[in-house]
Amino acid sequence: MTVTIKDVAKVAKVAPSTVSRVISNSPRISERTKEKVREAMKELGYHPNFNARSLANQSTKTIGIIMPNSANKTFQNPFFPEVIRGISTKAHQLEYGLYLSTGQSDEEIIEEVQHMVQGKRVDGIILLYSKVNDKVLKYLHEQDFPFTLIGRPYDESLFNITYVNNDNFKAAKTVTEYLLLLGHKQIAFVGGNLDNVVTIDHMQGYNQALRNAGIEPRDEYIVFHEELQEGGQEAVIDLMSLTERPTALIVADDIMTFGVMRMLSEMEVRVPEDISIISFNNVMISELSAPPMTTVDINIYSLGYEAANLLIDKILHPSVEPKKMIVPHKMIKRETCRRLVEKGGAKRESM
Amino acid sequence: MTVTIKDVAKVAKVAPSTVSRVISNSPRISERTKEKVREAMKELGYHPNFNARSLANQSTKTIGIIMPNSANKTFQNPFFPEVIRGISTKAHQLEYGLYLSTGQSDEEIIEEVQHMVQGKRVDGIILLYSKVNDKVLKYLHEQDFPFTLIGRPYDESLFNITYVNNDNFKAAKTVTEYLLLLGHKQIAFVGGNLDNVVTIDHMQGYNQALRNAGIEPRDEYIVFHEELQEGGQEAVIDLMSLTERPTALIVADDIMTFGVMRMLSEMEVRVPEDISIISFNNVMISELSAPPMTTVDINIYSLGYEAANLLIDKILHPSVEPKKMIVPHKMIKRETCRRLVEKGGAKRESM
DNA sequence: GTGAAAGCGCTAACAG
DNA sequence: CTGTTAGCGCTTTCAC
Fold first, then answer.
1. Is the CB atom of residue B29 positioned under 7 angstroms from any atom of strand D?
2. Which pLDDT does position B349 carry in this prediction?
3. Which helix (H) or strand (E) element contains residue A282?
4. Which of chain A's residues have a Cβ under 8 Å away from the Cβ of B289?
5. B30 and B138 in a common domain
6. What average pLDDT score do residues B12-22 get?
7. Which of A191, A198, B43, B68 is 20 to 30 A from A281 via CA?
8. Distance (Å) of CA B197 to CA B152, B209, B252, B255
9. Closest residue to D7 by CA to C1' distance?
């Protein structure tokens, strides 16, 4: 009942192999028979069977996407739809399909990845997160399976892989310098999970900027929290309980910033009058906070798009050297940062 | 170089078919040979080839997920990661994989769906959106291909399909009644795209509640906007330009509400003092608005989970009748609604 | 330019 | 309980 290549062959009065050649548009087939075959295909409503092709070809034309484990709240970050949109665009252009991981825990995920690669379910993999000592990364590298990482490898032994990242160190440094320029000296850093490489890079950029300005980073001003919203709220409590409250905050993620701002407003600390905030990512909703947040646009869409691009390249040319790519970031000034008002409180200049 | 069933067979000194039986854990194989075979598999590092299985089985153990076209901003709604998390959980339990659509336009999507089903790339499909006159829906139904819809069919001829939905009519009605109870009479409705069935249901619930209260719905109080954030903002401008401004707003979607609140605060209209707002979905961030929004929790995760559940059921038992399922919703009262203050402005009671 | 036939890796019907 | 064999639907040498 399913119409196969053979049926088409019969109707077109040619051999199955000829039909196959027409499908792949082989130049060694005459236009006349091509026409004949194509007609037969239309007539019968023929569609190539994907699994048969994959089996014969040893290629699936599909990309595996590994998300962080879905139990984690980060999963709901609008970051992901946006990277996927980027990946999706490139994939679609080159007629690749997307296969999604479903694991809820790290063990489930590594297992799944193994199934994907050993079972030849995908031609390559994109890792949507990068954390310290990641088993998945290590496994993929050992297997020499085509993959790209969004983020950067942490382990030295894994430096030589294909990845696309932002210059997160630089971004954090710039952002810190900006706050410094606005007169802030008590700048706190609210990071995400310390296992994420991006958190480490942010922190180092922050530290560097402070040191360059002759300010020694203070431990009490550096806090990390796993969960996005709750984390943001807890961080605020910790920070605002200090005798010397920070006058500015650098927050790891826009969603976390929502939590931070929420908590601050509950405590009746005004943004930016009492405290300045700057964060990272610039997801869709970040312009909708009250007040709209100043943040670093990391070009999420491009991260996805380029990751797909590099991956497909790797799939097609397995032997070429791994490529690294840095997607530019850009600070988006909105309304959560302001020049620090002097003790006396004379001028109030907003930036 | 890839290790196949034959290699295992050789090492274990059995026939390939026996190995196959061990894989599917057939009860007709003695424990002894099972052990022997399993050992050989470990030893060789054997992993079943997915495409070969799919081909022989006529089953892929994967579910296709059709998102709205990714060009659309709704794509970035945190709604999607959350439904997918639900789908993912069920799928993982039953060892199904997830295959994602990548189309950027409606044409691309319908094409993709056809490839998926005709090419036998997936065993079933979940539609993540439901809109009026949807070609995809129609096609799937014509083909009698297993699928479930998240939302409900609009076209009568398609009533008899499997779907999971909320009672959106009821939810909108309740919400309207709630505002009515708070003394509001000038209640506006800010809907999403009128092509979405959910918008229609919301509107009808709203209309019904008003009529029941003896209030004739006014055209000026009903606006629709496609885009989430911008839409929210435009809607506010339209509504606030009326001579008789509404005192309460029912907004289609939490993200849109962020846009609405942003615009309102720019216009220095205070929420909830000057205007009450209630919206739908209760996505993760909705509790982080300032003030935190009152909204209807539609249980997004369950929508996904149940959709996967019904779909897999359908895949396994194709002949059983289509099932419909209504996921309960629940109003989450937070801080954007308040009793209408009488003209004189005596009491101020918050709810 | 086109056909015949082997094979991708696995499953399942039929024997025994 | 286990082996033999014939496919699943397509690609790809190797002939002609």
1. yes
2. 47
3. none
4. 258, 262, 290
5. no
6. 91
7. B68
8. 7, 19, 12, 18
9. B56
- Residues of chain A contacting residue B91, judged by C-beta atoms under 8 Å apart: 102
Query: Is there a domain that residue B90 lies in?
Result: yes
Q: Does residue A153 share a domain with residue A69?
A: yes
Q: Are residues B277 and B308 in the same domain?
A: no
Which bases of strand C have any atom within 7 Å of the beta carbon of a protein residue? 1-5, 7-13
Taking the C-alpha atoms of residue B258 and residue B223, their distance in angstroms, rounded to an integer, is 17
A56 touches strand D (CB under 7 A): yes
Is residue B110 situated within a structural domain? Answer: yes
**pLDDT (tens digit, 9 = 90+) per residue, A133-151?**
999 999 999 999 999 999 9
Which tokens belong to A242? 């200090």
Mutate to test the interface with A, among B23, B51, B123, B281 (most CBs of A within 10 A): B51
Q: Do A291 and A305 sit in the same domain of this protein?
A: no
Task: Give B206→chain A minimum CA distance, Å.
Answer: 26
Number of domains forming the structure of chain A: 3
Q: Between chains, do A88 and B76 touch, taking CB under 8 Å as contact? A: no
Nearest-CB residue to B48 (from A47, A76, A119)? A119
Cβ neighbours of residue A211 closer than 8 Å, sequence gap 6 or more: A217
Cβ atoms of B231 and B72 within 8 Å: the answer is: no
In A216-253, which ranges are continuous DSSP H helix? 229-240
User: Do B308 and B290 lie in a common domain?
Assistant: no
Residue B223 CA to residue B220 CA, distance in Å, equals 7
Q: Which chain A residue has the Cα nearest residue B55?
A: A51
Let me know whether B172 and B291 are in one domain: yes
Tokens representing residue B230 in the block: 């911008």
The CA-atom distances, in angstroms, between A18 and each of A8, A15, A36, A43 are: 10, 5, 11, 17
The pLDDT tens digits of the residues spanning B212-237 come to 999 999 999 999 987 766 777 788 98
Q: What is the pLDDT of residues A219-236, one digit of tens each?
A: 999 999 877 667 677 889
Compute how many other C-beta atoms are within 10 angstroms of the C-beta atom of residue B15: 12
Residues A180 and A288 in one domain: yes
What CATH number did the domain enclosing A147 receive?
3.40.50.2300
Please tell me whether any atom of strand D lies within 7 Å of the Cβ of A265: no
> Radius of gyration over alpha carbons of chain B, in Å?
26
Are B97 and A259 inside 8 Å of each other by CB?
no
Range(s) of the domain holding residue B35: 5-44
- Residue A341: CB atoms within 10 A of its CB come to 15
Strand partners, A222: A189
Q: Running DSSP on this structure, what letter comes out for residue B74?
A: G
Tens of pLDDT, residues B29-39: 888 888 889 99
Residues B185 and B148 in one domain: no
Query: Cβ B99–A62 below 8 Å, yes or no?
Result: yes
Asked if residue B52 belongs to a domain, the reply is: no
Nearest partner of B60 among B47, B68, B50, judged by Cα: B50
Q: Residue B276 pairs with which residues in a beta bridge?
A: B248
Name the residue among A54, A60, A81 with its Cβ closest to that of B76.
A81
Q: Residues of B from 47 to 76 whose C-beta is within 7 A of strand C: which are they?
A: 47-49, 52-53, 55-57
In a domain, A226, yes or no: yes
* Token digits of residue A17: 């192999």
